[in-house]
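Internal tracking record. Fields below are filled automatically when a chain is submitted to the structure queue. Please do not edit lines marked as system-generated. If the sequence contains nonstandard residues, flag them in the REMARKS field before resubmitting.
Queue: standard
Priority: normal
Entity type: single polypeptide chain
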Amino acid sequence: MSLHTTPQGDRIQIALFGKRNAGKSSVINAVTGQQIAIVSEVRGTTTDPVSKAMEILPLGPCMLIDTPGLDDEGELGKKRVEKAMQVLNKTDIALIVIDINTITQEDLASSRGIPSKELEIVHLIEEKKIPYVIVLNQADRMEDALAEKIRNKIVEKNGTVSVNVVSSIEGDGLEELKDSLVRQAPGADSKLHIVGDLVEEDDLVLLVVPVDSAAPKGRLIMPQQQVIRDLLDNHAAAIVVQVPQLAKVLAKFQDNIKMVITDSQAFREVSAIVPDSMFLTSFSILFARHKGNLQKLAEGVKAVESLKDGDRVLIAEGCTHRRQCEDIGTVKIPRWLKEHTGRELIIETCSGVEFPADLSAYSLIIHCGGCTLHEKEMKHRIFRAGQQQVPIVNYGIFIAYINGILERSVEIFPDIYNLLKGQV
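SYSTEM-GENERATED OUTPUT FOLLOWS
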C-alpha cells in the first residue's frame, strides 16, 4: 500500500519525546520537509500530540507524532505529559530528542550519559521493548568536535542504541537519522493480513454490507474498504451485496464461494440464509485477529453470563463519529446485552484515544473492531484489561455469541474454533 492508501492504524508509528524546547517540532518539520508542527521560542508550544503521515523509504508509510514536553509544569502540564505517555501505547519506534547544548558534564558522568528527565522516558520505552533512537539536536550551536565527543560518550554508555547528532535548522544529520530509523524498524509482520492469508488466487468471497440509516453516505466504512483491498492485493475476487440480495447471489455462485463476510449487525439474518457448510464470519471478527487478540477476545465473551444487576459494562470505540438514532455502540449493543442477560446494567461508553486507565469498576468491556487504532494500541487495551482481570470482547464476537453462532463464526480459524467448541 502507498502513503495515501495506507490507513493510519497500519502505518509505522514514529513518536518524538523530549523536554520543552528540545527541538522536537523542528526535527519533525525537518524530517518531513514541511512546517507541520509549530516552532517557537516559547516553551511548551506543543500542547497535544501532532501527527503527520509521510513515507520513509525503505520503511514505507509512516506516521510521525510530535508530543508535548516531558518537563511541562502545573496541573495542565501534567495532563499534557499524560497525553505524551499515552502515545507510547501505539509507538513502533521512539525518538528521544535532546538539546545537545543542555547536556552537562554531570549528565555525561551518569550511568547512561543523558539527563534524568529523558532517562525516565528511556526506561519506560525499554520496559515496553520499543526500539528507539537518541537524537542530539541543535548541534549547529556547538563545535563539531565537541558534539562528536558528547555523542561518543553516550554511545559508550548505551551499547547498541543508535545516537544521532543533528541540526534541524541546518539540515545536518537528517539522512543519517532516517537510516537509523530504518535499522530500528520492526520486521514485516504476516499478521497484518486481514483476510488475505485465508484465500487463494481467484477465490470468490461474498461480502454482506447493509446500507441502512447508520451507513455513511456515498461510501463504505473503513473495515469494508480494507477487506476489499486485502482481497484484491491477494488476487481474490469480492462480490458485495445487501441482505435482500444475498439468497439470490448465493444461489447463483454458491459452488464457487470460499466464504461469506458480513457486517456483524446482520449476523442473525445472514446466518439463516448462508448454508452451514459454508464459512461465515464478520468484518469485526477479522479485525479482532488483525488488530488485537482473537483468542483473548473470544474467551472474554463467557463473562456475559456472569453479569449481575448493577454491574458496570464499558462499551469502547477507537474512533469518534456522529451518533445515529440506532447507533451500534450506544443503542444496539446496550439493548441486546440487556435483552440477553435480563439484568439491570450500568452502561458506560468511551471513544477515540480516551480509554480509562483504571478498568477495575467494570465487569465487562465490549470493544469495537479497532479499525482506526494501531495494532499496538489495541493490544495494549486488551493487555490492560487482562492485567486488571476485566473480561474484554469485541463487537463481532459479542453479536455472534448472543445469536448462538460464535463457534460457526470462527470456524475458519481452526485453533480458535477447537478452543471454544463446547466452552461458550
